[in-house]
């Protein structure tokens, strides 16, 4: 059956941090994030459930400040705006790591998934080889080696700790139902 996502639930429960016993949203840190961010939709809840992880967690203040227009949204590269717009310019989901490798370095989807797995397992030798490949692909696409390396290193923490979006969606729907 279809779940009606009622705006009042977001305004009166999530945005006020009234989430005792709500799956994924009952900790004091989650409640504070909810009160500061004030989610207005299931998409917001999906972002927050994924953001409250070791990789993207450091950017929670940026999400909040950007959402409320107090900080402009910036992107690591203008070509990444389409995939990072809904997450306020910050990589949150594993898919965004993979899409970044495709956009910046010309990786195939399969190669991007391998890169994500190597980054997630922090295999030093394999990472060094991937960096060379990533920079070469980015140079072919017109980027500088320096910019490519900067983006590559920006991806590393997210590849290891980021959720895939479908996982975040499933958690958010269970949370909404609770």
Keyword list:
single chain, 178 residues, mainly alpha, 10 helices, 63% helix, 0% strand, elongated
What is the N-to-C order of secondary-structure elements (H for helix, E for strand)? Answer: HHHHHHHHHH
Separate helix tally:
10
Major sheet summary line: none
What is the overall pLDDT average? 93
Strand content: under 5%
Walkthrough of the structure:
The protein has 178 residues and is mainly α. The chain contains ten helices and no strands. The longest helix is centred in the C-terminal third of the chain and has 17 residues, at 124-140.
Question: What does this entry show, briefly?
Answer:
This protein has 178 residues and is an all-alpha fold. 63% of the residues lie in helices and 0% in strands. The chain has 10 helices and no strands.
Topology at a glance:
Elements: H1 7-14, H2 28-37, H3 42-51, H4 60-67, H5 81-84, H6 94-105, H7 109-121, H8 124-140, H9 145-161, H10 165-177
Helix pairs in contact: 3-10, 6-7, 6-9, 7-9, 8-9
């Amino acid at each position: 059956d279809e779940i009606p996502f009622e705006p009042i639930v977001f305004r009166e429960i999530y945005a006020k941090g009234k989430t005792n016993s709500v799956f994924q949203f009952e900790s004091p840190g989650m409640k504070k994030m909810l009160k500061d961010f004030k989610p207005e939709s299931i998409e917001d809840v999906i972002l927050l459930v994924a953001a409250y992880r070791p990789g993207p967690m450091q950017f929670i203040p940026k999400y909040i400040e950007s959402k409320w227009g107090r900080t402009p949204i910036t992107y690591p590269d203008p070509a990444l705006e389409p995939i990072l717009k809904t997450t306020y310019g910050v990589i949150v989901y594993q898919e965004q790591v993979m899409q970044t490798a495709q956009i910046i370095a010309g990786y195939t989807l399969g190669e991007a998934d391998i890169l994500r797995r190597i980054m997630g397992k922090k295999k030093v030798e394999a990472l060094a080889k991937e960096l060379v490949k990533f920079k070469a692909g980015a140079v072919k696409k017109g980027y500088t080696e320096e910019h490519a390396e900067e983006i590559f290193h920006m991806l590393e923490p997210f590849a290891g700790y980021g959720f895939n979006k479908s996982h975040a969606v499933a958690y958010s729907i269970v949370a909404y139902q609770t």
